[in-house]
Amino acid sequence: MTKNLEQIRAHNALTAAQNPNPNSRLRAEYVKKIPAMISQNGLLGAMAFALEKGDDYTNIFSAVLMHLSSNEIRLNLGNRPGAVQNFLLDLAGEPATVLRAITTETLAYLNYLRRFVSREE
Asked: Model confidence over 75-106: pLDDT tens digits?
C-alpha cells in the first residue's frame, strides 16, 4: 500500500512528538514559532537562529532532518549527516530550487508537528 505525503508527514510528526527521550523533547511554544521564522528569514536563517539559541530549537530541526531523511521523502538530500549544523552548511551550498523544495516540505511537516506536539503537552 502506498502512502501519500500527508500520511508520511503525519506519521513522522507523531513519531517525533512521542519521542520518550527527555533530551529530545519538543516544546509546543517553540515549534509554533519556527514557521514564522522560516517565512520571515528563510530556512537557513531560522536554522542559524536555532543553533544560536540551543536545544529547544535544535531539537525541532533534528526532527525536521529525520523527516527529510526518511526513505519516503523524495527530496535530493544525498547522504547528509544528522547534525543540524552540518545540514545547514550543506543547504547553503544547494541550488535555490532544492532549497525551495526543502523549505516547502519543512513547512508542511511543521504544520503536523505543531499539532501533535500541542496535543502531547
From this structure: 655 555 457 888 888 888 889 998 999 999 99
**Which set of grid coordinates corresponds to residue 101?**
523544495
The rounded distance, in Å, linking the Cα atoms of 47 and 79 is 19
CA-CA distance, 34 to 65, in Å (whole number)? 14
pLDDT in tens, 4-48: 999 999 999 999 999 888 777 899 999 999 999 999 999 999 999
Whole-prediction pTM: 0.88
Residues 6+ apart with CB under 8 A from 106: 38, 43, 64, 68
Domain limits, the chain: 5-120
Classify domain 5-120 by CATH number.
1.10.520.30
Q: What span, in angstroms and rounded, lies between the C-alpha atoms of 109 and 5?
A: 9
- In angstroms, how far apart are the furthest CA atoms of the chain? 42
Pick from 30, 16, 28, 55: nearest CA to 119 = 28
